[in-house]
Amino acid sequence: MKECLLCEGVLSNKPSWQGFIGFEKQQVICEKCSNSFERTDIESKTAIIVSTTSLYAYNDAMKNYLQQFKFLQDIALAAVFQQELYDVLKGKSNIVPIPVHPNRRVTRTFSQVEALLDYAKIPYKDLLEKRDEVSMGEKTRQERLAMKPLFELKSSVQIQPESYLLVDDIYTTGTTLHSAAKVLLAAGAKRVEAVTLIRA
Amino acid sequence: MVRTLDGTVQSFLDGRLWHREHTPFSMQEIKREIDAGNIRTMQGVVTQRGRFGRVIYRCNRCLNENEARYTHFDCAKCGGNCTYCRSCLKMGRVSSCTELLYWTGPPVQFSQKHVNHWQGTLTDLQKRASEALIASNEKGRSHLIFAVCGAGKTEILFEPIHRLLLEGKRICVAAPRVDVILELAPRFQQAFPKTRVTALYGGVKPTLEPAQLILATTHQLYRFHEAFDVVFVDEADAFPYTADETLQKAVQKAAKKDAPIHFVTATPAKKMIREAIQNDALSMIPRRFHGYPLPVPTYVALWRYEQQIIRGKLPVKLHQWIERQVTEGMPFLLFFHNIELMEMTLPLIQKIDPRIKSVHAQDEQRKDKVLALRNKQTPGLLTTTILERGITIPKVQVAVLGAEQAIFNKSALIQIGGRVGRSKDAPNGDFILFHHGITHAMDDAKKEILLLNQKGGFR
Prior knowledge:
The structure holds 2 protein chains of 2 kinds. By secondary structure, chain A is of the alpha/beta class. Chain A is 32% helix and 20% strand.
């Protein structure tokens, strides 16, 4: 008996021909939980990032989701948006996840953006390294805006004069993405786009 | 004899089973105690071999063995393939590379100075049950108290618990529902004013003091390990305790080896009664403490009530019943089998009185709303089965909408009826089953109530 990853309710799986021949999409959450997320597909443009697409609004359901995923370390929840992320990112090249600090990766036991991409079966390039251990959420807006570069290129990484696509879990003030984009552009990237799961 | 140990690692950890990374102490303090041999560690998730060499995972905190509740992943901390348990995730994730701590140093010496401050008197039946329980404690055997709703179960426990406290024993009263714990905690603290009584439930911060008398939801017992000399499980038939095997194992794990585990319930399973009779450890109380019979359910047919409500129409008989409660100023509870139907019905019922509210398990204002009913600020509540047991509201009138639904099994209906007529000045009240067809569960509940009334000396 399969349970919804979020509410632990029983997932109704009516037998179907698609399921029988293995074509049916794997359900991991129930319809009710699925409907509690608010799809917005907001797109914004700045001078540095040509286009940022955010798939969902930061509503209560999403807050709880992120809390359980990141702070209760429930990596299984990376599966919840696997299909949606796959649909947006399939076929794209030069996908670069926003990294967490190596120390935080160890305490959390995983990097949330990499986990989202792994579950969505999207290949990515691990090009950036976080310099500061404090997370964005722990800083005030002033502190965020007045910070030194958050990221640096990993050693022995070569940036091609191509388009790069940054991926992050949540877009709040945009500081994180812009900081990462500047690093890529300075190293020779032609243009930078971004996709985030959530827009706060 | 009594050492003050408050705030030390020993007083916190003795009897507990705790995630190494989530203790209230520094890593150095924990390490020092491990090196001194006072704390041992246990791997969080372990594997066993089942039939045909099948790998079975087991979480050492919650004892979950359901494969679907485990997730395997590439762990950045232990650098390998790691497995974590999703069953008790909300208590802080436990994985293969998590260490659980338990105390093996000198045990905490608990106080032997206690007073039983409860001033009431027990009925003969209550007194007999209380004495039988004391005898069972002396013999170290598990006892079953089968007492009807409103028999005064809690009062039966006071003297047996007092005797155990005087011996410096550590005791746990566990119940599956947080509402029950919240109601019991102040009553126990009043009865034992010199005893440290601690209530544990989801979301409460653990205290550092070594509590001698713990009231806990059965879930919280995941966090204990051979801690208690005696465990009482109240409302042992309630969801989720009966449905979730890990909770039953958790009670065993939290009790010391060979410690008696007593059950107190109004609706025991047949197997439980049989075992208790075999061990000569059954006390039965078929009579309410005030000496009046249990309310017998009245069936009221409400055909196609669901379709009527979907169409925005409140069934006439239901409308009349609620209107009568409101005009007579009687507090009422109306039980539903699911939240959706309840939320659909609420606006229709609020036309009678807009102060009527609804509650369900995830409702953050649940405590306040029940309090409002008690204080007569709200005339009545629509509720899911969460309020089926443990609560006492004077003069409350009760009805079930959709009594034919599967969730209203025999014991649920008996419990719901048990909310009615609990006080001496108002021993009667409505217990209405609005239904779309009579089920076996309804008939079984009615039969059992009549049988218990007969055993209690009524005809």
